[in-house]
Amino acid sequence: MSTLYVTDQGAYLSIQNQQFQVFYQRELRIKVPVNRVSNIVLFGCCNVSHGAVSCALQRRIPIMYLSQRGRYFGRLQTEGNAKVEYLMRQVLCSQDSEFTRKQAENIVSAKLHNSRALLLKLNRRRPSKIAASAIDLIADLMDNLVQADSMDALRGYEGKAATLYFQALGSLFTGAFSFDKRTKRPPTDPINSLLSLGYTLLSQNVFSFIQAVGLHTHFGNLHVPRDNHPALVSDLMEEFRAQLVDSLVAYLINSNIFTIEEFTPPDEKNGVYLQPHSLKKFLKHWEEKLQSEITHPHTGNQVNFRRCLELQVREYVACLMGEVEMYRPMIWKL
Predict the structure, then answer these.
(1) b vs e for 143-160, b when ≥16 Cβ sit within 10 Å of the residue's Cβ?
(2) Which range is least confidently modeled, 98-102, 158-162, 265-269?
(3) Which residues fall within 8 angstroms of residue 313, CB to CB, at 6 or more apart?
(4) Are 95 and 178 contained in the same domain?
(5) What is the rounded end-to-end Cα distance, in angstroms, of the chain?
(6) Is the pLDDT assigned to residue 80 strictly greater than 70?
(7) Do 57 and 161 fall into the same domain?
(8) What is the pLDDT of residues 254-278, one digit of tens each?
(9) 12, 45, 76: which is the final residue of a domain?
């Protein structure tokens, strides 16, 4: 199962003979069997036939709408996936401070561990004093997480580690690109642009799996439940940021796969984005990353990263229902 991306402006997605077909300027560009598609992502001005929408809804294939630059707008999907039993447990657990603290601490610990693991990996290839210092300081922060006397203090440790991490990561990029700090809404340089796009795609994959198993997306632990924010999605994507998105961006930049010319000049808000033709290149590498295999630590099976996302959502269900003592994030082996 894979994601069908439609990026050409004015493209038309239809269905015929149980195949999704994408037309651009009345020419058939691609056709994919329906049973091979798990998600559909539309960038910018793309049109979808009634038949394609009906088929996607019947088969519970979510259709996600993003701007041409990768900003998430919303999704079209079938309702009724939520399981009442899970929802009741989510509500109860969200009011249990011991439960939320335990899961939040594990999530932060895994995020810091995996971030540090990427710095160690990159620093072996291109040693940096900034990275070496950050590696030690993040290890200290990990040791001190248990001493955080409140959830806000725990989030404070996470914030300090993130600042150190991105400063160090910037020192490990090679070539013409520079990266000083994380900027969002808008991303103000090419590397931030790739990171933002990657995080958006990661979050939508996690969102789909959370809904598919019957959980509510808004009851998180580290991220506070609030209106219009899928806190659980934010929680469960944390352990994958460095493993999936940041490592991919580092590879793309340090391997000279992208050039400065493949990004737009800063717009009126100082935002920088991929050129339309380069978006397809990024999506190709993103899908290859999702299909790359790794040993899942809890099952011991060799599975791809997309399957890992699903297994971690199911791991959270097991934690929620008391089948395991606590949520066990995916830890990147050093």
Answers:
(1) eebeebeebeebbebbee
(2) 265-269
(3) 206, 209, 210, 212, 213, 215, 236
(4) yes
(5) 30
(6) no
(7) no
(8) 999 999 999 988 888 888 899 988 9
(9) 76
